[in-house]
Amino acid sequence: MDRYVFLETFGCQMNDDDSDRLLGFLKDINYIRTEKVERADFIIINTCSIRDKAEQKVYSALGRFKSLKNEKPGLVIGVAGCVAQQNGEALLKRAPYLDVVIGTHNIHRIKEILREVSVNKRRLAATEFSSGIDGHEYGPRPFNIGVKASVSIMRGCDNFCTYCIVPYTRGREASRTGADIMNEVSALAQRGVKEITLIGQNVNSYGRGTELGFAGLLRKVCRVEGISRVRFMTSHPKDFSGDLTRLFAEEGKLCPHAHLPAQSGSDDVLKRMKRGYTRAQYLEKIAMLRAVRPDIAITSDIIVGFPGETDRDFLDTMGLINTVRYDNIFSFMYSPRPDTAAAGFDGQVPLEVKSERLRALQAAQLKITNEKSRALVGKTVEVLVEGVGKAGPDEFFGRTSCARAVNFPAGAAAPGSLTDVFITDAYANSLRGALQGSTP
Ligand code: 5AD
Ligand code: SF4
Fold this sequence. Notes:
Blueprint: E1 3-9, H1 13-28, E2 31-33, E3 42-47, H2 52-71, E4 76-80, H3 81-87, H4 89-94, E5 100-102, H5 110-118, E6 124-126, E7 148-152, E8 154-155, H6 166-169, E9 174-175, H7 178-190, E10 195-199, H8 213-222, E11 229-233, H9 242-250, E12 257-259, H10 267-273, H11 279-292, E13 297-304, H12 311-324, E14 328-333, H13 351-374, E15 380-388, E16 395-400, E17 405-409, E18 418-426, E19 431-439
Parallel strand pairs: 1-2, 1-3, 3-4, 4-5, 5-6, 7-10, 10-11, 12-13, 13-14, 17-19
Antiparallel strand pairs: 8-9, 15-16, 15-18, 16-17, 18-19
The structure holds 5'-deoxyadenosine (5AD) and iron/sulfur cluster.
């Protein structure tokens, strides 16, 4: 008999991947996904704890589901992801209507966990860490197969940047085997996927100490027949190697885009964040990338208001933005996280100061992003057609190799094809264009 699962996902690409895996394992025991929460036999929230705001969303989401439990006695409610890992049993105490807490290394155990709950009537928190990645943790992928797919290559992080909760919620770095990854990529290519994004918290550390390493793996993925574009997320600047940089010149399928989180432009702040590079070393990596691939898009993550950040430090970050001229950035106010070193640092910055710095930073970046978008007007760019756009069946949507969104009249282009689009207009978050020609 079919049962229904309602799943809500917060957070990063790793959580999206975990949610896909969860749905894959649930499908084996006849669960169908529903968007109607009242219909669900199992409600699961996959959570993020990177900043306090993200964590608070979990508690308000849970509050919404509490009343459903009274109406439907057999309903199972669960929390997965980083908040689950971080808080474990404490969540069961805090929310008496919660049945299961599933840590980040326990997604693949969902079937036995649900059995414990339904058959043995146990509430439980499964938050044990495992040291390596077992091939069985990645089941079949029956969901969300479109033109693009992400493939997780590693998990965890060993860097312990002083602001970051990830090493505590995702555990130590562990890599999947090259064979497992290549099998998954080939299977996706056979199902019509054209663009692969290799994901991990810190992909440059993939297979550390092994012969293949990240650059080697990336090269192999670029050679898979049927795949036309390859991307990766997220890199750590300190580990961004010369081998990897050279691939941007050598592998035509590798998209000219590097997400290289700087976090700050101040050497003092970088040191206290324990980032492992100076501003000059960071700029050197960017210069190397631009030397081999002048059109490369560079994006970044920036934190404002890290403990002890002075006006001078912040100006250094503003200076970095204007020096690098990023294509885009994700920027955040520093949020103290449990267990992290920086939460106990002196010089916590007041909210008003953080908020004003964030506003100034975002305004400066918006200006640069807009200038870069406008510079594309009148140029022809290659777009991977993803499908029908929001404006209706005659409009197609796709992305450039630098991941900019482009809308254009559908014409003869087909989803999955690489198509040349002549850019006619630039808006805040997207480009508009006209079709030039299409290669199936
Ligand atoms: N406060 C604010 N931003 C954070 N990030 C990580 N930890 C924190 C924190 N405690 C940001 C970093 C990271 C991105 C995913 O989230 O910029 O690169
Ligand atoms: Fe967090 Fe630093 Fe690891 Fe990135 S590299 S996940 S910021 S500890």
